[in-house]
TrEMBL record:
Gene3D superfamilies: 1.10.8.60, Homeodomain-like, P-loop containing nucleotide triphosphate hydrolases, PAS domain. It comes from Jeotgalibacillus proteolyticus. One of its GO terms (molecular function) is ATP binding. PROSITE patterns: SIGMA54_INTERACT_3, SIGMA54_INTERACT_4. SUPFAM superfamilies: Homeodomain-like (SSF46689), P-loop containing nucleoside triphosphate hydrolases (SSF52540), PYP-like sensor domain (PAS domain) (SSF55785). This is Sigma-54-dependent Fis family transcriptional regulator.
Length: 455
């Protein structure tokens, strides 16, 4: 590749160079819009350029209510934010934990952006062997919400498995509730509340895997009978899968001799076992070793009958935890939720409900406008069919909670673009020229903001 000439590097050259760096790099401008986003960051956050470039951070990522993006903090405070661990969620509802060093970018005495150098600790956070610290942190079969036949079958199979001494394999998509089911089986077996240990296999190295197993052996040697929950088996390297196969085979041999297990293994797969074996992600011998009892955890899209019950459950749960008084949701919300496929399953529904409830202020009935912006973009706005565009439509409304600044700016942008289109008789080229942007940029914003175009 020829070196660029001049005082400034071409942004594509810089972008390709950053892709070789083995730490996540994320650069935003003064508006919090993504300018550069390297390959490592895309892997860490399970995102693509099209998902994030030229979008504001808060349009793409969800942060806990009492936290803020370290990139936005660096922009606001105009000083480095160093060695900060941050947990947040991407647009797909996936939880991410990073350790960040974030710096403002200066030019001619002014802050013109911010750069974040991030290290992925999602796996490290979840690799720790954790024991529950109290009964409130462990689920039982009484905690399951839903009455669909698939859930009833799953609960029946879980209770049956609890009466055995066998290892158990749980299969089902990410976010469907496999760890909750494992906790239910642990409780049903009458095991202690401090003895549910978990290992997340994502991004495990050989050394770390052995380190965790040794740590668990030390702990269980000092405690009563326990559960060893090993999650995302398909994420292990094949060499580690073979090592795990030997470990589980030894466990089975000991059980046959003593009829008294030292611990109960419960393992999970987030992919169909046959597909995982055919694609080379899962060792066939490991599958046969651990699949003595297999229980399927259904996806939410296959039990949409349970959505109203789940919505009620989350409202009651969040009301109790956050001291709010939400009474329910509109009928349109239930219809909308029932039309959606929920790729993130129950965990995604939980995140959407939590974010929506925090946006409600003093209102008590959750409606479309309270849903997170990234989630609303997946649907047609029920209000979009109303042709009238009143300039007060996005201003302060009587009896309504104040919007966040980002939400206000998004509405203002949508309103201004719509008015500009009307002024130019819905000619996209003329409108883009008047707004000082490219036609492609305007097309993108029309789609992003669900702006109505004349048929």
């Amino acid at each position: 590749m020829a070196m660029p000439k001049g005082n400034f590097l071409d942004i594509h050259f810089v972008s390709q160079a950053l892709d070789y760096i083995q730490q996540g790099i994320h650069v935003v401008d003064t508006h919090g819009r993504t300018v550069l986003y390297n390959q490592k960051m895309r892997v860490m956050e399970s995102m693509e350029d099209i998902d994030i470039l030229d979008k504001r951070l808060l349009e793409v990522f969800k942060f806990f209510p009492d936290e803020n993006s370290t990139l936005l903090q660096a922009l606001t405070l105009k000083e480095p934010i160093l060695n900060i661990k941050q947990t947040y969620f991407n647009v797909h509802g996936q939880e991410i934990t990073t350790l960040n060093n974030t710096y403002p970018i200066w030019s001619k005495g002014e802050v013109v952006g911010a750069i974040e150098i991030a290290q992925d600790v999602s796996s490290r956070e979840q690799l720790r062997i954790n024991s529950a610290s109290g009964t409130a942190e462990l689920s039982s079969f009484d905690h399951w919400t839903g009455s669909s036949p698939l859930i009833e079958d799953m609960i029946f199979a879980g209770k049956q498995a609890s009466n055995t001494k066998s290892m158990i394999l749980l299969t089902g998509e990410a976010g469907s509730g496999k760890e909750r089911l494992a906790q239910c089986i642990h409780v049903e077996r009458g095991l202690g509340v401090h003895t549910f240990y978990s290992i997340d296999c994502r991004a495990l190295t050989d050394d770390r895997f052995n380190e965790l197993l040794n740590e668990y052996n030390d702990k269980k040697g000092r405690r009563e009978l326990s559960t060893l929950f090993i999650d995302h088996i398909e994420s292990l390297d094949l060499s580690l899968q073979k090592q795990l196969t030997d470990l589980l085979a030894d466990w089975k041999a000991t059980l046959r001799i003593t009829n008294s297990p030292l611990y109960y293994p419960i393992l999970t797969l987030s992919e169909d076992p046959v597909d995982a074996i055919q694609s080379g992600k899962l060792d066939k011998d490991l599958y046969y070793t651990m699949s003595e009892i297999t229980i399927f955890v259904p996806s939410l899209r296959n039990r949409k009958k349970d959505i109203p019950e789940l919505v009620t459950y989350f409202i009651d749960d969040f009301n109790s935890r956050f001291q709010t008084n939400i009474q329910g949701v509109t009928e349109e919300i239930i219809k909308l939720f029932s039309s959606y496929d929920w790729p993130g399953n129950v965990r995604e529904l939980e995140h959407v409900m939590e974010a929506s409830m925090f946006a409600m202020g003093q209102e008590t009935l959750l409606s479309f406008t309270h849903l997170p912006h990234y989630f609303r973009l997946k649907f047609d706005d029920p209000m979009a069919s109303k042709p009238a565009l009143d300039s007060s439509a996005f201003m302060i409304r009587e009896g309504k909670a104040l919007q966040t600044l980002d939400a206000f700016l998004r509405e203002a942008e949508s309103y201004y673009i719509q008015k500009s289109l009307q002024y130019h008789d819905y000619n996209v080229t003329k409108t883009a020229d008047a707004l000082g942007m490219s036609r492609q940029n305007l097309q993108y914003r029309l789609k992003k903001n669900n702006v109505i175009r004349k048929k």
